[in-house]
């Protein structure tokens, strides 16, 4: 009886140690609402937002929040540009749809930064006008999660 309960305690202790070992990795990834209170909208400077919020690390999550189109709200979306040139010129021809006009509703659309490459995010609405005139564009290049020690 005594031996059984102490081995159960050992197992419990081992589980706690295993969970503690996992916890830092999980809790270190951060979650960002793109634009904070402004959310994903026309006319906000997301390039400044990235400078203010960065650096970003691998496995951080970006949350894009925007209302679905209705009588009073313009549609927004999220596209990823293939390269810096397309990003600069807001050329959507080769862009990849990340989140459609209804996907930013509710708790928003979550994008996990899994790769350590530049991510060129833009809004693809109105043929690129939200990107050019509306400043709905930003670049994030996540650093290795191993570098997160601040
Ligand atoms: Cu837009």
UniProtKB/TrEMBL annotation:
Domain spans labelled Phytocyanin: 30-144
Record bears the keyword Zinc: no
Residues spanning the membrane: none
Keywords: Signal
Gene3D superfamilies the record matches: Cupredoxins - blue copper proteins
Signal peptide annotation: 1-29
Gene Ontology molecular function terms on file: electron transfer activity
Name this protein carries in UniProt: Phytocyanin domain-containing protein
């Amino acid at each position: 009886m005594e031996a059984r309960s102490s081995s159960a305690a050992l197992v419990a202790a081992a589980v706690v140690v295993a969970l503690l070992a996992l916890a830092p990795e999980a809790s270190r990834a951060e979650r960002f609402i793109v634009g904070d209170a402004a959310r994903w909208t026309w006319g906000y400077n997301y390039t400044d937002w990235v400078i203010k919020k960065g650096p970003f690390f691998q496995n951080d999550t970006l949350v894009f929040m925007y209302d679905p189109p209705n009588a009073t709200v313009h549609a927004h979306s999220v596209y990823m540009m293939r390269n810096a040139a397309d990003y600069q010129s807001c050329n959507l021809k080769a862009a990849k749809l990340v989140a459609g006009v209804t996907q930013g509703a509710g708790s928003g659309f979550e994008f996990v930064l899994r790769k350590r490459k530049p991510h060129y995010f833009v809004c693809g609405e109105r043929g690129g006008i939200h990107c050019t005139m509306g400043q709905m564009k930003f670049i994030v290049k996540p650093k290795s999660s191993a570098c997160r020690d601040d």
